[in-house]
Write a structure and sequence with these properties.
The complex is a heterodimer. Chain A is an alpha+beta fold. Chain A contains three helices and nine strands; from the N terminus they run βββαβββββαβα. Classes of the chains: A alpha+beta, B alpha/beta.
């Protein structure tokens, strides 16, 4: 379910690092919790962010939620397709519906994040809480 | 079950529905589609003065040749159009409207009677104070009542919505702190607060810092102390919270804030759970707003008019919006001479007609307003008690005026809160609030208000229990609801993604075909 090559945050973002670039998206758990996504707002290319800064917002039929950057760096690329096809986030959150590519300040920035196994356990715990 | 109430086919899908049944419902298209060239609603008498060309009289740039697609219909067609549409509506006058957080209580007819009295309905806000004594006294008297109910020191009745009240209150906090040379940066907001709070904070120029509730839906005091740094201007709390739960440590929270120079803002949208029982002014609140269109029974309307008075402690009084109504020796006046005021937040004195209705309601109750509060809490707890064995209760705390369940049990059958809400329409009720508050995944937020009788509450409970049973035995029926309405489940996603906000003449629509098929889903079917 959750790709092994990704790293994950407690706020349900994923990060994939390839060389100096990190790709950021939201997890399948997040898209499911949000429901049908109707609007995505992404940062301008060149924006500098610190880990934990707001990267953008995702609006679903239920709510407007902020996306937080798991790492610091400079926004190098945004997925502009999402402005006309926000529903992609519901269909393919881990691949084609990536949100932002960031030029990383620190290649080791992902060290503090969860791996797929830890994230799966975290999500399972969340789901248990909700049905307890 | 009373058979007379179900003219249906007696199938299992309909036979448990007591409150609603089939009846003839008139079809109706858009009024634009009824247009026939040359039809008129009224016949004007022949002109008895020389005709004037508007383009010449006003200047060509101000004259419009015509309005494209303007409907041409007769008077009775207009009347029938809007009357038919009105029969598709659901209103508190038709039955229970348990939309949690919104407080859809009955708007008593006496309010409307008073608002239409000659001498009130015909007053003009630009009349001088000397001939507006009655209206000024009404504002002054309502202020006195609201101050008594909230335990606060002073008020402005100018804001015309809860959110505007929030912004006004925050601007008062900012003005106060700035006057002391200590503007500060942040406002703390618990995750169980009303959704408008963070937006008001940002517009007032503060940063929002969210505070997570603990597992009991309360603020964690130990944690909270750490949050209240020298940067914090205020805590903005909704009490009772959107979980319908009273903040147990509110007085201690106020003390912590005050000891560090910060203020306590209370969103009073849920004041209908407190009025006549406890007073925010007594438990340490410095500024709050009320929603007259919730607690004080004025109409919600189609997005307005509302009223969101701001109530404050003395320290904030110099900063109140102008004008304020003053009284001396039985004479009332509008005072504009307030050099530290944040200025006007609304023309005239706000929505006077709404203030008038709220005063009628408040005076009709008098001290017995406590009974209204107790009935609202009783109704919510009655419903909770009769539904808690079939719906999951995520925060098992004493409920105040509303109860929040989750769809956790029904989800096992693939049925979510939205499905249950839609099915409730088939049972003749307006849905409850779905998916809010956000801290409860799949929330069912139910607020009956004090308006409902036990009999209506029982009908609602029966409907909810019946739907819970359907979710187990026939989940498809619930997932595809509503079934008895004029149109089935609307495509809310398409409506949000590709909104079609106004009718356009056909040729324009044809030109926009590239928009895709979604727009079709939003046109009201005429069949």
């Amino acid at each position: 379910m959750y790709p092994a090559e990704f790293r994950y945050t407690k706020d349900h973002e994923w990060l994939q690092i390839a060389g100096p670039t990190g790709t950021i998206g939201i997890t399948d758990y997040a898209q499911h919790a949000l429901g049908d996504v109707v609007f995505v707002e992404l940062p301008k290319i060149g924006t500098r962010v610190k880990a934990g800064d707001v990267l953008g917002t995702i609006e679903s039929v239920k709510a407007v939620s902020e996306v937080f950057s798991p790492v610091g760096g400079e926004v190098a690329e945004i997925n502009s397709e999402l402005s006309t096809a926000p529903e992609k986030i519901n269909r393919d959150p881990h691949r084609s519906a990536w949100l932002v590519k960031i030029k990383l300040d620190d290649a080791k920035a992902a060290d503090g994040l969860m791996d797929a196994k830890a994230y799966e356990a975290y999500v399972a715990e969340k789901e248990k809480e909700q049905t307890a | 079950m009373n058979e007379k109430h179900t003219h249906g086919d007696g199938s299992s899908a309909t036979k448990r529905i007591k409150k609603a049944g089939r009846h003839v419902s008139q079809s109706e298209g858009l009024i634009f589609e009824k247009s026939v060239a040359g039809k008129r609603g009224i016949e004007l008498p022949p002109l008895d003065v020389p005709a004037v060309d508007p383009a010449k009289a006003l200047g060509a740039e101000f004259a419009r040749a015509g309005v494209e697609g303007f409907p041409e219909v007769s008077e009775i067609e207009v009347i029938r159009h809007f009357t038919r549409l009105s029969t598709w509506n659901y209103a508190i006058d038709l039955g229970m409207y348990p939309l949690g957080s919104c407080t859809m209580k009955y708007n008593p007819r006496v309010n409307e009677f008073v608002a239409r009295l000659e001498g009130l309905a015909t007053e003009h806000p630009l009349q001088p104070d000397e001939v507006s004594q009655g209206c000024l006294r009404i504002i002054h008297d309502l202020q006195k009542c609201l101050l008594e109910i909230t335990g606060m020191d002073a008020a402005s009745l100018e804001p015309v919505a809860g959110a505007q009240g929030e912004l006004t209150g925050l601007l008062l906090i900012r003005a106060y702190l700035e006057s002391k040379g200590d503007a500060r940066k942040k406002v703390l907001i618990p995750d169980s607060a009303h959704g408008t709070n963070p937006a008001s904070v940002v517009i007032a120029g503060y940063e929002v810092q969210n505070i997570k509730s603990n597992e009991r839906g309360q603020i964690d005091i130990a944690h909270f102390r750490e949050f209240v740094t020298g940067d914090v201007a205020a805590l903005m709390i909704t009490n009772p919270s959107t979980l319908g739960v009273y903040e147990e440590n509110i007085a201690e929270i106020a003390e912590i804030l005050h000891s560090r120079g910060a203020l306590l803002y209370m969103d009073g949208a849920n004041m209908n759970a407190l009025a006549g029982v406890t007073r925010p002014g007594d438990f340490g609140v410095d500024v709050m707003h009320l929603n007259l269109h919730k607690t004080f029974s004025t109409p919600h309307g189609g997005g307005g008019p509302g009223a969101g008075p701001v109530m404050i402690k003395k320290i904030l009084e110099p900063f109140l919006p102008v004008p304020i109504v003053t009284e001396a020796n039985g004479r009332y006046a509008l005072d504009f001479n307030r050099p530290q005021s944040i200025g006007r937040v609304r023309a005239y004195c706000g929505n006077f007609g709404v203030l008038l209705r709220a005063l009628a309601y408040t005076l009709a109750y008098g001290p017995v307003i406590r009974q209204a509060t107790e009935d609202a809490v009783l109704n919510a707890n009655y419903i909770r008690k009769h539904l808690e064995d079939v719906f999951d209760l995520p925060y098992n705390l004493p409920s105040m005026h509303e109860v929040v369940f989750s769809d956790a049990r029904q989800k096992k059958h693939g049925v979510n809160t939205m499905d249950i809400a839609k099915r409730l329409i088939d049972y003749g009720f307006h849905p409850y609030t779905t998916a809010f508050p956000l801290i409860v995944p799949g929330a069912l937020m139910i607020e009956p208000t004090e308006s409902e009788s036990r009999e209506e509450c029982d009908l609602f409970i029966d409907a909810m229990r019946s739907i819970a049973a359907e979710a187990e035995t026939n989940p498809e029926l619930v997932k595809t609801a509503p079934h008895s309405t004029r149109v089935g489940r609307l495509d809310e996603v398409a409506a949000a993604r590709r909104p079609v906000l106004r009718w356009q003449p056909k040729q324009n629509l044809d030109a926009q075909k590239h928009l895709g098929p979604h727009e079709k889903t939003l046109v009201v079917p005429t069949a």
